[in-house]
User: Fold this.
Amino acid sequence: MIDLHSHILPGIDDGAKTMEDSLAMARIALDNGTVVIAATPHVIEGCWLPDWSTIQNLCRELSLELRRENIALTVIPGAEVALNMDILDLIKGPGPYCINGGKYMLVELPATHIPQYTEEFFFTLQARGISPILAHPERHPQIAHNPELIVEWVNKGILMQVNGPSLVGKMGDRAMKTAETLLNSNLVHFFGSDTHGPKTRTPRLTEAQAKSVSLVGEKITRQIFTDNSSAVISSDDIIITDVQKIAVVKKHGIWKRIASMLG
Ligand SMILES: [Fe+2]
Assistant:
């Protein structure tokens, strides 16, 4: 498997604190079937703003340590760029802050809302030759409430990366249900672990892979856990499957209230 989302680089954000953490995370990833991991530290205006060269250098340092420790995991540079118009001053085109220095960029929304300039941000990246990948849409409250919000984005070429732990319920029931809905609707193009450490939020993707097989079968699972991510690493185009009609389970609040009054 290829893990497109991780905070495995030491001391650069809220992920791995030390090189020992990074190596422990790498061992867990490898033991669970991941062979390539993208290091995607936070890039957030006013909070964490590492130079691209710093990310690349830390990746090289980690790769050297992995070789020394005989851990056969490949680490490639990337970033998780927080959506903000000011940050576009740093991003002129493919390369810096993109996965493996290519044309795909992992982007995250603010945790609580979808800014008005979101589409402008995405389309500015596209106009500059960058393909945005939205990180963990299943965790966003507005998307969880109305998954239809992202259909138009997908139809305009914005790709979706879901967190494996969300699909198996480790990020709560809402994120799990939304991940299932997105997967069943062909709205997931990649999985990532979004690992932050060796003890909690670890880089295990095996359970999510097994659940994906049970929901959408082996062919689609292979596509979103390996084939599409492999294309990202080499900056090739990926195949977008037609979006299925979203089938969201409706809430029956009034019936629950009537039933409780009767019961
Ligand atoms: Fe992340």
Observations:
- The first strand starts at residue 2 and ends at 3.
- Strands lie at 2-3, 36-39, 42-43, 74-77, 80-82, 104-108, 131-135, 159-163, 190-192.
- Residues 249-260 have pLDDT under 50 and may be disordered.
